[in-house]
Structures are given as C-alpha cells and as structure tokens.
Design a protein that fits this description.
Elements: E1 9-24, E2 30-50, E3 55-57, H1 70-82, E4 87-93, H2 104-119, H3 126-134, H4 140-145, E5 149-152, E6 157-160, E7 167-172, H5 179-184, H6 197-201, H7 210-216, H8 218-227, E8 234-235, E9 242-246, H9 249-256, E10 264-271, H10 275-282
Parallel strand pairs: 3-4
Antiparallel strand pairs: 1-2, 2-4, 2-5, 2-10, 5-6, 7-9, 7-10, 8-9
Helix pairs in contact: 1-2, 2-3, 7-8
C-alpha cells in the first residue's frame, strides 16, 4: 500500500478502540464517546492544481460517482470558504475497503482539505480546516488535527491521547454493514453511562454497536469468533472491520497467513500521530493552530 511518488499525500486509516453511545440529539445524531487511533496504512491522493477553478476527480472509484465523492466535496468547500479561483485535478489511489469502519472517506476528505490549503495557499489554520471538515463528516476533524484522541459529541470534541502503538491484525469480513441500519436498530444501546478517560485506561473499552452488528451480520460474528481464539477481538465503529492488538508484529503476520477461506485482512501499526500531519509539517504548512 505504499506509493513511492512523493507528490502523493497520505490518507491514513483509523480504528475506534472503543465506542459508547450515551444519548441522542433532537436532530437524530447520536452522542458518542470514542477513542481514535491512526494506522500506518491508508489511501493516497495526488493533487494537480488548475488555474480555471475546475475541480475534477480524475480516477475512477467503483460505486462512487464523482459528484458524491467526499474529496470533491471537500475541495469545493475549501474553494467556496476561501473564495479562491484555483482548481484541481484529484487522483485517488483507493486502498482501504469502503464501509469498513476505517474512516477512509473521512480521511480522504481531510487530506484534501489539508493538502489544498497548502497548494492553493489559502492559509487557513488547522482549527479552521477542522471546522470546515465537520460539515463533511463527524470523523473528519480528528484526521485534520492529526493526533490519537478521545472524542465526544458526535465525534468532533477531541482531547489528544498518548496510547500504546501496538500492531493490529485487521480483518475484513465479506459483507457490507449499513451504519444507518445499525443506528436505527431498536436493540441498540443508546443510554450507556458516561465514562471518563481514566475509565478507558482502566480497561473499559467496549463497543455498544458490537451486539447489534454481530446479530445482523453473521460474517462479522464469525470473524470476531475466529480472532477471539488468539486475542481480544474488537469492532471498529459500526464495522465491517474487526481487529485485535498484538505486541509482536510477527504473531500478527503469522495469523494473517492463517485466515479462514473467504476472510481477508492486513497488519498495520497503530500511530498516535497521523502521517498526514507529518507530511504537512514537512511542507511547512503550519507550526500550530
């Protein structure tokens, strides 16, 4: 999943290491508590600036029309917010599974905002970009801020965390989980007691969506069962991906080679600092803010 061309910008995956639903707003959005950590694997984007204000995605993504793609929407949001006359051709190398709970679309949008802010010289701060990103998706701000984080609200109230950075074996069950179906399920827990960061570090790391997803999607349940033979299995977000942490990379890779037929996966390192932000600093995009 590495791209050698230095023009390409990283759009890293994330994991939700826990997910608690503590309420629901009047507009229907669920109030969450979750922990985000990045992975050293993800999508890649290349941006070729234009001087005619046209924004185009020049790569084909099966099942995602250009008009619906978050990278195009992100570019247009930044263009409109800054009144720039610049345009761009965007090439997206899609590596992460769509609908996997790994934040691929949100990460792609965040990378678009961060990279074009530099390329177009629109000079927004990181916090200003995060506010723009929130309109595109609740997970976008954490990718822009670029640090592993405790999140509340709908996922946008962030407190940076220093976490262990283990190796993760991530499994991709052969199905598609509907986030809308999970959040509308009558059996979903929506009133978990509010917890603290100290509670999380003491070991409280459940995902309130896991019982519903396991019941609705047998392939996810089977992946959790298989992985549970070797480690503590978890669900990221509403899935579809499940994962477990390992201190030893070699053990994770050995298990990857022993996956049951029909189950795919990969091994990646957990990161507390996003590769996107490291790249932005290399480009002297910002020093703070």
């Amino acid at each position: 999943m590495k791209v050698e061309n230095v023009r390409f910008w990283p759009a890293p995956a994330k994991l939700n290491l826990m997910l608690r639903i503590i309420g629901q707003r009047s507009d229907g959005y669920h109030l969450l508590q979750t922990v985000f950590q990045f992975l050293d694997i993800g999508d890649w984007l290349d941006f070729q600036p234009r001087d005619d204000a046209l924004i185009r995605r020049v790569s084909t993504i099966p099942g995602v029309p250009e008009s619906d793609d978050l990278v195009v929407k992100a570019a247009k949001v930044l263009q409109q917010a800054t009144a720039t006359s610049a345009g761009v051709d965007i090439h997206l190398e899609k590596q992460l599974p769509m609908g996997g709970g790994l934040g691929g679309g949100s990460s792609d949008a965040a990378t678009t905002l961060v990279a074009l802010n530099l390329i177009w010289n629109t000079q927004l701060s990181r916090s200003e970009l995060a506010r723009l990103g929130l309109a595109l998706g609740a997970d976008v701000p954490v990718f822009i801020l670029g640090k592993a984080a405790w999140a509340e609200g709908v996922g946008e109230e962030l407190i940076a965390l220093e976490l262990l950075e283990p190796w993760y074996l991530v499994l991709i069950p052969p199905c598609h989980v509907s986030t809308a179906a999970v959040f509308s399920d009558q059996e979903l827990t929506r009133n978990s007691p509010r917890m603290t960061i100290a509670d999380y570090f003491a070991g409280s790391a459940l995902n309130d969506c896991l019982p519903v997803v396991s019941r609705r999607y047998p392939d996810v349940a089977l992946a959790l069962e298989w992985l549970g033979q070797f480690a503590v299995p978890k669900l990221t977000g509403t899935g579809v991906c499940v994962f477990a942490a390992f201190d030893d990379e070699s053990k994770a890779r050995r298990l990857l080679g022993e996956l049951p037929v029909g189950l795919q996966g990969f091994v990646a390192r957990g990161l507390n600092r996003s590769p996107l932000i490291a790249r932005a600093h290399e480009e002297h995009m910002w020093s703070s803010g």
